[in-house]
Structures are given as structure tokens and as C-alpha cells.
Amino acid sequence: MCSLFHLSDKAPFSKSLLIILSALAFLLAVPFSKYKSLFMYNLQTIKQEFQIWRLICGRFICLDLTHAFCSSLLIYNFRIFERRYGSRKFASFLLCSWVFSALFDTLLVEALHYACDVKVDVLPSGLLAPVFALFVPFYCSIPRVQVTQVLGQFTITNKSLVYLVGLQLLTSSSFMWIIALSGLTSGMLYHKNVFKTQNVIFIPDWVARCGSYTLEPLFSIDEPTLESAVGMGATLDIQRQQRMDRLDQQLLLSQLPHMRRNTQQQGGQINWNRFFPSLRQRWNANHQADPRLAQNTPANPLQEVSEEQCYFLLQVARLMEMGFSRVDALEALRASNNDINMATNFLLQH
């Protein structure tokens, strides 16, 4: 069954969640600011009057635009997990962390009251604890790829910006550390599957099907089959390049069995021009335009390609099959020392 909650290359759940949270935060900040008090995350009111609706709204809608902006930026960066695990599991992670962090918020506030005699009535509102929970799989499963160095000592990686945004969100309120601690704890419980939490709290299948029927049409945009007669030249060039990349990918995959048989017959050497004449000519033209890529191919068009280079081209074809361009795939593989997993994570992060 090809549904939204199983095939999620476009991360539809993250995008819809991002739009809803941003819209609600803007509405309560500008036109309906007088109703903010109804959506405050007031633990004392919830505990004394058993207002469940206030608990749900207070832990979902951001009343501070700074919190809304930082959490939205983090959700946008964490959409990589929806692409990797699927929308259903990603939504189950958010739901489980939301439920457990609500319990941990209450426990931490009570512990702070009895241990330090500090009474906390109102906590920062919004979908903040699940956002902090996503830092657990981000730290554990996303590899660090060095981008540059500052002053020769401080290393900037592909994860530095996300951590800086998380630090900004953590320091934006005096009691945000309670939300962060409860979120990280709940994220650890789900990521490690403590007490079989992944089997206890999850999105039901009928909810997944409803999400597929409602959200999939909004985020699945068919690619144009023909070029429009009217359009900007740069846009048409990009479309042509994307089609060329797809043809290259199909050609590489279709000729792979012939390449392997030819490698066995020739003792590990492949005649490139025999199988890829047109592709080779176009690739040489691209390398003349971009000299940085020249080191990845032989200088002589008639030179035979080794088995190691064929393996490299196969890795490029796999990345192109995921939707990345040939140039980005080559640069990512070169930066990751031909590790396709690290190159994939690097491309998804950028």
C-alpha cells in the first residue's frame, strides 16, 4: 500500500505540522492576542480544575513568537527522520514523547517545589518537549561531517546550526530547562524502546490512512512532462539538467549487468566508450565547465575505467536515484570518503 505514512520522501507530516503551528502562533500573537490566557500551560489550573483541553492546547500552541520560530526551524531540520523512518513512525515518536514529557513536566515541577521550595505554575507553551526529544536520535544516528573551521580551532559541522538553534530555544525562557529535560528523557525512552514504549504508544493504522487521504494530495506534486512555452531561462535549464540526471541514472543502472560481465572478461577493466558514449561526452563537457570535478574521471576519453571507479559511479547512481543531482552526489561522496551512508545524511541535511 503506497500511502503517505509509509512513503514520505517529501516529509508531508513535518510540513503540515510546521504550517499549522506557525499559523496558530501568528494568530494568537497578532489578531487574537487577548485570548492568550486561555492557552497558557498552567500546571496548577490543569491539576486543580482538571482542564484537559488546556493541557492539550498549552502543550501544542506556542504563545511566544521566538519559541515558535526556533521550534519551527528545528522541525524543518528534523524532517530527515520522517524521510528515513516514515511518517507513521515519526508521528508515533512525537506522540509518545508528547505523552511522556507531560508526565515528566509534572514530576519535575513537584520535585523542584519540595526540594528547593520553588513553585512553578506556568511553563513555556508549545510543541517544545517533542522537539527537544528529537535531539536524541539526531545525536545518536546523524554522523558529524566537518564543514569548516573557525580561527583554526573551532570545528563547524553539518550539525552545528541545529545545536545553536536548540541552545537559543533552551535559553529563551527561565523554565525552559524543565521542558528540555522532560523532552530529552522521553526521547531517550522511545529511542531505546525502554518498557517497549514503541509498542505501547503509536499512531493507529486507520489514522495513518486518514492522514494519507488528506495530506498526500497537498504535498505530492507531479513533475511536468513537457516544458512550458513560457518560463524563465534558468528554470528551464534546471528542468533540462534534472531530466539529464534521471537519464544518466537510468543508463547507469541498465548497463550495470553488462559492466560486471565485461569486468570479468577483461580482468577488472571496462571499456567506457563501448557502453556510455553519449554520457561520456556530456560528462567531459560538464568537467570542462567545472574543473573541481575533473579529478573524479580519467583525463583521456578513451581511457579504460577500473572496477573501483565503476563502484564509485554506482554509488553516484544510487544517490541520484534518491533525487539528488549528479554534482551534489559527487561532492558528497568525495567529502565522505565514498561512504554512501554518510553522503546520504550529508545531502539530506543540506
UniProtKB/TrEMBL annotation:
Source organism, top-level taxon: Eukaryota
Keywords, ordered alphabetically: Membrane, Transmembrane, Transmembrane helix
InterPro entries reported for this sequence: Peptidase_S54_rhomboid_dom, Rhomboid-like_sf, UBA, UBA-like_sf, UBA_UBAC2
**One Pfam family matching this protein:** Rhomboid
This protein's major location comes to: membrane
Kindly list the places in or outside the cell where this protein is found, as annotated in its UniProt entry: Membrane
Bilayer-spanning residue ranges: 12-32, 52-78, 90-110, 122-140, 161-184
Q: Where is the UBA domain?
A: 304-350
Membrane association type: Multi-pass membrane protein
Protein name, as recorded: UBAC2 protein
Supply the source organism for this entry. Answer: Polyodon spathula
